[in-house]
Amino acid sequence: MPTTIVSVTELAAHLDDVEWIVFDCRFDLADTEAGRRAFAQSHIHGARYAHLDEHLAGAKTGRNGRHPLPDAGTFCAKLEKLGLRDAMQVVAYDASGGYYAARLWWMLRWVGHARCAVLDGGWDAWLKAGGRVSSQAPALATGSFHGTARDIAVDAETVSRLAVEKGGAVVDARSEDRFRGENETLDPVGGHIPGAINRFFKNNLAADGRFKPAAELRQEFNHLLGATTPECVIHQCGSGVTACHNLLAMEIAGLAGSRLYPGSWSEWCSEPQRPIAR
User: Which of 25, 76, 116, 237 is catalytic?
Assistant: First the structure.
């Protein structure tokens, strides 16, 4: 039962297994239909397409971030329509180093489904290995998927009260320049949450696009967090997507128990009274 990452070889061995289901999470923030077009052109054989805005996020209010969490029941119902059943092994992939796939991975854990893994190396690794691909969308039969939201997501008030004021750690997954408040192109205000520390999500990957070994990730996160235990760590980014990559990396490293601030910087900076650091 893979619960963090799965290799191309292992997925290939289970591609016709009716108890395994694959979700293509390819997406482009600058062109929100690019992933769907890429899926229509070619995808892992049998995969379903999960759109970041349509399946992995809820309605925006202007103050709840760019990719707020949907209602848990609505999320489960959408995946059910794509064929997911309660006992199935899920494998998610993308072409961006795994951070869109990690969002689906985290959301499934959020509703209590542990049987989910990200394809290590993603679409590029699958193609390089000669994995089966198709341009035909699979016939969809409605599954039976039930889940209940777990207490692993926090709001802005919790971030401020527990993490910043009481010695926990807020880990920001954005690039170093955006963390400093420079070159901000996605949100109207640059900067970071006061007290946050920076861990660019791409630092979780080796040169070949796969995740670094567990021992290496553990050493890097222990150095970053010091004496802070995983239970006192809150992850954020721009909109609660790439932060899931750091959550996944910590799970791979054996450092389970941290939480996600889904609203992240895009929600934090929408309220002028919240403090900003640069």
Answer: 237
User: Which letter does DSSP use for residue 31 in this model?
Assistant: S
| Whole-number Å distance between alpha carbons of 158 and 133 | 44
Domains within the chain, CATH numbers bracketed = 5-134 (3.40.250.10), 156-268 (3.40.250.10)
- At 207 the pLDDT is 97
Give the separation between CA 85 and CA 250, rounded to whole angstroms: 27
Each residue's pLDDT tens digit, 225-274: 999 999 999 999 999 999 999 999 999 999 999 999 999 999 999 999 99
DSSP code of residue 3: S
Which amino acid appears at position 186 of this protein? L
Burial (0-12, 13-18, 19+ Cβ within 10 Å), 9: exposed
pLDDT value of residue 161:
83
267: phi then psi, degrees, rounded to nearest 5 = -80, -45
Does the annotation count 269 as an active-site position? no
Regions of the chain where pLDDT drops below 50: none
